[in-house]
Request: fold
Amino acid sequence: MNINTLKNLCSASKIKWTKHGLERMQERNISIADVKNCIMNGEIIEEYPNDFPIPSALIFGHNVEGRVLHTVCGTDGQFLHIVTAYFPDKDKFESDLKTRRTK
Reply:
């Protein structure tokens, strides 16, 4: 997956927000602007090519206040699909908040 493709779709507002994603964002006090900022200034740290219904990726970035944010999204080539967004847990990620811990 190419980060520039995701950024281009984001900047063109060709975004589909899943119900799940919006619900989790609301629960976690993450705004649409936060997710867009994460994508526009972030980097792909994991890829999920076998996700259904479309391949997705985990993006490491920051919310508008500078706090580290992870966004899971994918593309069908026409739209950016936002799956979920969350603030990474230090118990699940190394201190860089990019590398997933192994048990």
